[in-house]
Design a protein that fits this description.
By secondary structure, this protein is an alpha+beta fold. The chain is built from five helices and ten strands. The chain starts with a helix and ends with a helix.
Amino acid sequence: MTATAVRTTTRVAGAAAGALLTLAGVAAAPAHAAGYRYWSYWESDGGTPWAYATQGPATARPADGDAVGFRFAVSAEADDTAKPTAAPDFARICADMVAKDGTKRIAVVIDFGGPADAPPGETPPAKRVTTGCAQVRPDATGAEALAAVAKPLRYGSGAMLCGIAGYPARGCGEEVGEEPTAAASPTASEKRDDGGGPSVGVLAGGAAVLALGGAAIWKARHRG
């Protein structure tokens, strides 16, 4: 390898490392990190605490006695997705629903979030949390249970849930740009101390940086 190629390789490697450090710095910045505003989907099996669902409501098939939860919020960090603020209390929510053969009962909790989570120009419903007991066929999905107790529903591409009961009226999982801390963070009464689930991060871009950097280094070496 020539001296010029060595210097080129060193510069490219340094640039790639610097880009990765920049990405890591963005991911570690909690106050101004960009996030996403969307409806997250949660599950509870027989009264257990909320767990972030491993699949969407359009394919998940809760069992009789389960609870499903939907929470609208802005997720800005890993493990920052907020849970529904109401407990998955199947016994209470479905207390008045008599079991019938050929059906299952699913408790549904819908949390519209607070003002800090609302899209620009929109206001969350006055009643932040609503619940309902869906009595549906045995093979019904979480989305069908939701539709049984809350309409209208709005979906986007890829069957992504965009709106419940008309909220929000527009948008679907859009990215939220850098915002002042006060606007991006929940108020004192909305602190997300109820744990969280996975959210969209920025570290995936690191793989692309490494790939581009590696390709540039390979080319520089072969020029020499």
